Hints:
The chain is an alpha/beta fold. It has 14 helices and 15 strands. Residues 286-345 form the PDZ domain.
Amino acid sequence: MNAFPDADRLKNFPAQVEIDDIIHVPTGQKIPVSALSHFFDCASVFYVGETHANKASHQAQLKILTAHYERFGSNLAIGMEMFTRPYQPFLDQWIAGEIDEDKFLEATRWYGEWGYNYALYKDILDFAREKKIPVIALNASKDVVTMVRTKGLKDLSEDEKKLLPEIDTSDYFHGVYLEKVLPGHTKGLADRERFHTIQCLWEEYMAQTITDYLSSWEGKGRKFLAFVGNGHIVYDFGIPKRVFRRTFLPYCTIYTTEFKGGKPSAEQHPFLPEIPLEPADFVWSITPYEPEPEKKRIYLGVQFQKRDDNKLVIEKITPKSPAQKAGFMDGDILLSIDNRALKNIMELIHYLQTKQFGDICIAEIDRDGTKITYPVTLFEFEREEK
């Protein structure tokens, strides 16, 4: 089904679209950022989509946040997909200035759970902290997602169902979108249904979080900015429709999309011919994502056993590596580095990339029940090919 050819729908856009142009989708009119303030007043919830790895998306979000603050002061809140609900206390401590950035990233397990470079989000979270703007953890916990991914919705126990919000999987165009845009996540009918269910779980969970906050004593009357992936707001059938179903509050959506040569990129085209809906209230043209220049990565020089309990048990040490120079031995369990408890290998890898060659880290290991602390000097070495 091709309801509208995408080329025809683009004819309503200006002939020339430059980077950072904001286009009002219903009229095709370009508007300045300052003109968005007219929509701030009438919208209780303002959704600004992002391409997670593209800095330009987050710069657009920061501009919207700054403009909201100039108009409403601290009478607003920010909801972020990147954090799951169990980490709300640490977000509160961050905003209150009670913990520093290192502790914040460790407590929220940023690199273990979200994984994207924190520098992409740092300006937003620093601004929120400076201005004391609440940041709300929107997403479902990993345990809840794993439970639904493993059992599906129909096979959950009554107690397990009580952990979930109302979940609607019936939107036809939502299913079309997922099959069209995210084919790499699905292989076969069962896989497609499972992925569709998980997508709906994420969106219903975030919608319920927004609803709960706006109906609470601390959230009532606040403007709410939702910073989430583009796929959760495009065509409204993700989070916006689900919040509206619960609240009937007015809202506005901005879809940040990469433009190349004055046209939207094929990967992020806002008009899919299979979906006869407007993608958003506004499209914000951003620069295409360009990966940062590859830099030499920092490693300790160890290989870990594959274990179900995620303990970092050293299986092999690379000769002439930082780990060998420090005195690590096969069978050692790496407990922490620079007083950071390590939950998994990815947390170690991401933390090491924040360091520089020549830095000294303090590693704590468990060797046959005895805890030992080693200073580890990080340096470049020749890694063994696997």
